[in-house]
Amino acid sequence: MKPFSFSSTKLTLDDYRRELSDDAAGGYASFEGWVRNHNEGHAVTRLEYEAFEALANKEGERIVNEAIQRFGILKAACVHRVGSLAIGDVAVWVGVSSKHRAEAFAACRYIIDEVKHRVPIWKKEHYVNGDSGWVNCERCAVPGHDHTHEHPHAHDHNH
Fold first, then answer.
1. How far is residue 143's CA from residue 159's CA, in Å, rounded to a whole number?
2. Per the similarity annotation, which family is this (predicted)?
3. Which secondary structure element, helix H or strand E, spans residue 106, and what is its range?
4. Among the four residues 9, 29, 131, 145, which has the most C-beta atoms within 10 Å?
5. CA–CA dist 103, 74 (Å, integer)
């Protein structure tokens, strides 16, 4: 399994978890970002994700490798969907195996936060009223934005 990848089909979470299995691991943590039916007061019917995949794959792999080095974990991976997704679909998955749970949780959180902040992925929301709109994390890119991973991001939309 690659450290970071995209998929245009439904994510196979059990397969991904098995790939991170390690006899030296005492813990495993994962995160699933789901497509929800609303965002900022709008009823959402579906989403589309697009990515600049050449750059995104490199940056995503860099993030996973940073997490491995920073937290001393054994294995980690992230898979993000592209294309059209329905309500309830898994849009992004992160998994981490490590010797201890604290490192697994911390690395998992680091990976999803950094992917949202640094990887060039765009989301288009389709609304019940027929409108649609591209959504990005503009507030993450604002100079001086506190991105310490010690607090939840109020602007996390779907993952």
1. 22
2. Belongs to the MoaE family.
3. helix 101-118
4. 29
5. 10
